Amino acid sequence: MTNTSEIGAQKKVTVIGAGAIGLSWTALFLANGLSVTINDPRPDIEKTASEGLDQISATLKALGYEITDLKGDLSFEADLEAAVKDADIIQENAPESIEFKQGLYEKLEGFIKPSALVLSSSSSIPATVFSQKMKNAERVLIGHPFNPPHLIPLVEIVPGERTSKEAVAEAIKFYELIGKSPILIEKEMSGFVANRLQAAIMQESVFLVKEGVVSMENLDKIVSSSIGLRWAAAGPFKTFTLGGGPGGLPHFMTHLGPTLERIWAVLGTAKFDESTTALLTEQVNGCYGKIPYEDLEKERDAQQLAILKAFDK
Amino acid sequence: MTNTSEIGAQKKVTVIGAGAIGLSWTALFLANGLSVTINDPRPDIEKTASEGLDQISATLKALGYEITDLKGDLSFEADLEAAVKDADIIQENAPESIEFKQGLYEKLEGFIKPSALVLSSSSSIPATVFSQKMKNAERVLIGHPFNPPHLIPLVEIVPGERTSKEAVAEAIKFYELIGKSPILIEKEMSGFVANRLQAAIMQESVFLVKEGVVSMENLDKIVSSSIGLRWAAAGPFKTFTLGGGPGGLPHFMTHLGPTLERIWAVLGTAKFDESTTALLTEQVNGCYGKIPYEDLEKERDAQQLAILKAFDK
């Protein structure tokens, strides 16, 4: 899956902030033959990053990457200016704080090459907001991954108001070359798309468990054995296009639209108030809470890999 | 996957109504070695059913069923009394009309054996409602499949107020023996669980497309390359338990609960009004509308099969 020649082996990437997301990006960039500099202020970052990369390495191999020395092209630079000044691409994974990010981007503008492409993993603060203190924000935009980025294909591409079309096109090409599925979001909206859809299903899920309609564990089984399976193969609109038979989506809207609207009218709301939190904690302690975290994670990643391989993604 | 000995080869099943859902059930029952009588008033039912079963047969083989003569144990009986009087199990797929179903169940009570288990594919009318005119509704409940039942594992088990625990247990056992994943819904609620969750994500999807945040085709790609993949492996609660790290769901609720609540507060609403219907029709004509229905269906089923095989389900 490595495609060094097209990406250009000369490309230098700087990863700002190497928590779970930043480290996963680092692994993926390295596996694709890019040279990576990590900029992270933590004193133990070299040790933490090295251990994390060893763990991710197995998954990357299972995904088909040929890896001999994942850390060969990796370096660390705690000084921001030194870390970014030669970078062609920057993937920023700083804390989700408006003030922090605005200060960071203001500083970045003084340090980076004019040709550098600056991509942010921001999951909620839009580029228009965090780039506000920059004079020129043409080459700054969001490349928001779905966790973990080395495994899940989606990257939401969300340009800010001042982002140039060229920068958007370059970002899409870059993510495609490293095997991701970048999708353009055309309007900045809180939560972008994937997290809003996830929130919508989660609200109804919490409501149904709270109402005693179904247990948490059974709700998960329902999703995995029906709509989850469906949506891994075809998203909601494609599913309903097929649900309309040969008449497609127009037929679906005419004949089943009213049924859907009736359910929309009675969907629940939820809050993580004291009683809800207590109920969910009690239920999770009775099921997933009994399984060691590492085992749960391994099981999920194995199934995820199995699906990706089945699709040859 | 056939398990005739446990189900009992002597078991007689009657399928009432052999549209898409009823026919898919019929195929699955036959593949599992049961003898099936179809009760459907359409004059061309034998021809339609025969053609439909031939089509489904290929998918069942791909799922691992050894099929030599799928239609060997199939018969047709247009008279309701004659069709159900010897049945051990009845799977009803009549139109979703309260009046029609109530009349049907009232008649059924006079015709069936007292030991017969009566299962309804009803997707919206609860058992308590459609069994209202029966004197005894102990052995009547909903076994609601996700379309198509021969392929998608989920069956929602929804007892009515008068359904006995024994009947619920028998229904669960029956569906398990024919390879399904029956899940108990503990309270009758409009749309049960899967369709409510599906409606929740669909409402937000329609909202986002209408707002111009993302195109229909790209929204589908987002789902299939992120949350769909996730949920095929682990439902929403398991996903957020993992999202909480070693602290699990309680940690998630404390740290990311507020972010989720902020998105819940701004989720959209939708209606299939004239402008929405026109926009969705225009977009679907530009993507899936250009592909023949059969091709879309084949592609989806192939991917579905690939996932099920990857999971060894």
How would you characterize this protein structure?
2 copies of one chain form a homodimer. With 313 residues, chain A is of the alpha/beta class. Chain A has 2 domains: 4-184, Rossmann fold; 194-311, Orthogonal Bundle (N-(1-d-carboxylethyl)-l-norvaline Dehydrogenase, domain 2). Chain A has an 8-stranded mixed β-sheet. Chain A has helices at 4-7, 20-31, 45-62, 80-84, 98-111, 127-130, 165-177, 194-210, 216-224, 227-233, 236-243, 248-266, 274-286, 293-311; strands at residues 12-16, 35-39, 74-76, 89-92, 117-120, 140-145, 154-159, 181-184. At the A-B interface, strand 8, helix 8, helix 9, helix 10 and helix 11 of A face strand 8, helix 8, helix 9, helix 10 and helix 11 of B.
Short synopsis of the structure:
By secondary structure, chain A is an alpha/beta fold.
CATH superfamily of the largest domain in chain A: NAD(P)-binding Rossmann-like Domain
What is the H-and-E element order of chain A?
Answer: HEHEHEHEHEHEEHEHHHHHHH
Strand content of chain A: 5-15%
Oligomer: homodimer
Largest sheet of chain A: 8 strands, mixed
Structural class computed from helices and strand pairing of chain A: alpha/beta
CATH class category label of the largest domain in chain A? Alpha Beta
Summed up, the helix count of chain A is 14
Portion of residues within helices of chain A: 40-55%
> Which CATH architecture of the largest domain in chain A would you pick?
3-Layer(aba) Sandwich
- Interface with most residues: A-B, 103 and 103 residues
Radius of gyration of chain A: 22 Å
N- to C-terminal distance of chain A: 10 Å
Low-confidence parts of chain A lasting 5 or more residues at pLDDT below 50? Answer: none
Shape of chain A: globular
CATH domain fold name of the largest domain in chain A: Rossmann fold
Strand order across the largest sheet of chain A: 3-2-1-4-5-6-7-8
The average pLDDT value of chain A, as a whole number, equals 93
DSSP strand count of chain A: 8
User: How many discrete domains of chain A?
Assistant: 2
